[in-house]
Amino acid sequence: MKSCKDVMDELDRYIDGDAGRMEKLSFALHMAMCGPCASYFKQYRAVRDSLQNLDDPALPDDFNDVMGRMLDAVKSG
Amino acid sequence: MVAAVGGRSERDLVTALQAGDQRAWRDTLETYGPMLIGYATRLLKRRDAAEEAVQEAIVSVHSGMHRFEGRCSVKSWLFRAVHNKAIDELRRNKRYVTPSDNEDGRWEDRFDTTGAWTDPPRPWVGSMGAQIDARRVLEAVQQTLPSLPHNHQQVLLMKEVHGLSSDEICDILGISSANLRVSLHRARRALRQAVEPLLEERAP
């Protein structure tokens, strides 16, 4: 039987879809029975998901000029 | 999976870049430029410094293109050059933040010797119902991510923000996939830890 710490140390296997069927089952069972672990998992996943929704830093207004300057640098480099 | 640049196969792209084909260079910069500038801007926090790092990286990639042997993708090759320039810049200005020595120790302390929680997580704002308030989490992450140690920021930016594959990140950082798994876990854990004070439910 895995401890809470064992399960929490392996969270990425579930997050990244690397866990096998039996692992997923035992993970789901642990989450159903353990409030603190379920709570931590929910928070961990929410933080990770939020990273995929960060706004991109706005590109420079003169992005094409910037690329042009880089190409010029390449040509003369 | 490598995105095609200007409809070329990776092999054709490399041949064209090595031959100094200006069209191929332009297509490459148009494809990867926004991502490279975005990454450098997030890491350096200054647009001018980011543009300079990207420009220097591209010049050095261009002059070293004949040495490119195709062991990784052009995208990883470029990204690695930008990453190295950005980290050099941070180190030169003494702005490179390393993790505290006791990061793992603090995590271990949250459990007893049997691996049971001694310091369980407290609920977060808005989590008493169905879902954690994603908007609040996003705001907290935006606020705290730039202050994380840079080795955490770099893997989170590459993996989660820019969607690079694990193989690409391993090529860029020159680490094994086992090392990447450990780094990513520590980084995600550190970010969750960093946003915790902003999101914990306060007792009424």
Structural account:
- The complex is a heterodimer of chains A (77) and B (204).
- With 77 residues, chain A is an all-alpha fold.
- Chain A contains 5 helices and no strands.
- Chain A has one domain (1-55).
- Chain A has helices at 4-9, 11-15, 21-33, 35-51, 63-76.
- In chain A, helix 3 (21-33) packs across helix 4.
- Chain B folds into 2 domains: 10-92, Rna Polymerase Sigma Factor, Chain: A (Orthogonal Bundle); 103-199, Winged helix-like DNA-binding domain superfamily/Winged helix DNA-binding domain (Arc Repressor Mutant, subunit A, Orthogonal Bundle), CATH 1.10.10.10.
- Helix content of chain B is 63%, strand content 0%.
- Chain B is built from 9 helices and no strands.
- The model of chain B has no long low-confidence stretch (mean pLDDT 91).
- Chains A and B meet through helix 1, helix 2, helix 4 and helix 5 of A and helix 2, helix 3, helix 6, helix 7 and helix 9 of B.
Concise account of the structure shown:
The complex is a heterodimer of chains A (77) and B (204). Chain A is mostly helical. Chain A is 71% helix and 0% strand.
Structural class of chain A: mainly alpha
CATH architecture of the largest domain in chain B: Orthogonal Bundle
In the CATH scheme, the class of the largest domain in chain B would be Mainly Alpha
- Bin the strand percentage of chain A: under 5%
CATH topology of the largest domain in chain B: Arc Repressor Mutant, subunit A
List low-confidence stretches of chain A: none
